[in-house]
Amino acid sequence: MKQLSFDMYQWMGSEAQAAFERAATRIERPAGSLIYAEGDAGDTMFRIVRGAVRLTVLRDDGRELLFQIYHQGGCFGTSSVIDGGQRPQTAEAYEDCELQVVTKAQIDGLRADHPDLGDAMLRLLSMNMRLLISYFAGSNLDGIVAWLAQRLEEAARAFGRETEDGVLLTQPLSQSEFAAMVGTSRQTVNKALTELRTRGLVINHGRYLLIKDIDQLRRFGEQGLGPG
């Protein structure tokens, strides 16, 4: 299973990483606290040292869409330090977390001195763009079950752990969070989860979800996309 990592360090050399570490200020945020809100002005980006951060977008109809849950190493808030625009998502501490914070001015200097850092930011933005495109495609699927399968496969790559029984999501997700993944109601997502369980693709493992066959789940999710 190819892991989905949002850590810019994977594309940066040791010198650029060390420079980022020197420039960054460290802050701590308790679980449930707001880091920034969608629409806020922003001139800082963040990297997770410890804990998890939840990124969400508010739809026009008032429903919340869960963009992603970032874990250790995850970098977010990058678009605002690139273009100076408003925050496109809301970020809140999903767990008690420690964050590295770097300002736009610092990033500009680091990019000038370390081109691989600038390249890493472009790669991260490209990854986020690809995810958004897949979400848009998923939102137009005939079946919510196929879209949920896609989001679960992505979650498995982002924070799943391979076991002899399948891939275990290491983050317990509530019914509301499953619903927010696909922008639907809890009742609808519960029916979709039941369908995936009936097909033997996922099972509950205590408070966690176990994906029995990640490749089969991926194929099931792709069925709704049609030719392209």
From TrEMBL:
GO cellular component terms, semicolon-separated: cytosol
Q: Pfam families per the record?
A: cNMP_binding, HTH_Crp_2
Entry-linked Gene3D superfamilies:
Jelly Rolls, Winged helix-like DNA-binding domain superfamily/Winged helix DNA-binding domain
Q: Which residues form the HTH crp-type domain?
A: 142-215
The record's GO molecular-function terms, alphabetically, read: DNA binding; DNA-binding transcription factor activity
* UniProt KW keywords: DNA-binding, Plasmid, Transcription, Transcription regulation
Q: What is this protein called?
A: Crp/Fnr family transcriptional regulator
